[in-house]
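In this supplementary section we document a worked example of the pipeline. Step one takes a protein sequence of length 224 as its only input; no multiple sequence alignment statistics are reported here. Step two produces a three-dimensional model, which step three serialises into structure tokens for compact storage. The input and output of this example are shown verbatim.
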Amino acid sequence: MQSILVSGDPKDTENYTLKICEENKISNFDISFIKDEKPGIEQIRNLQKGIFLKPFKSKIKITIIQNAEKMTIDAQNALLKILEEPPPDTIIILTATKKDFLLPTIISRCKIIELKKETSKLSEKEIIDYQNVINSLIGGLKVGERLKLAEGFSKTKEEALSFLKNSMVIVRENLIDEILIGNQKNNLIFQYISILISFQKTYTIIYTTNVSPRLALENLFLSF
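The serialised model returned by step three reads:
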């Protein structure tokens, strides 16, 4: 039927999902959840096995994957085919605190509902600092400088995730600015898109695995 990605505060996304179930008069027997802390490929394979079963009491059934941004990369890739062509009697709903924490291929296959637009809460100095880092990566830092920069932002997993999250806000705002001023052919647009995708993938890897945050950021910074 269709695939929906609902992003926002976890409580808001839960309430919105319940509203969809109520509006479609879905019986509790026809609502299934994936609530694992870090949904992996096994959970998605189990979903694939049961997704084509007919609804039990309702005209349609709903499958809900909560905290979808916590899915492993393998799980997200395994989900792509189902999201693109869900059964005609099935609605698949993914919830996430922010849609950009998922792979772009997941996002492109879903109807997007953003319940709360994220705004930058950074100070003016912080915005400038993050912008300088991004400009440095684009501008061609030496290898040693990139490694040192990665080390500075990866003392803990939380620090690395915070850096990536805030950087994505800045990059996205830069991208929107370039598009609004009509620079669709500007190379900066393609650079910002590439950076945003790379940051999203690295965030997902750090968030869903036990990879070393420093190693993940080093690989990221060396890729530009």
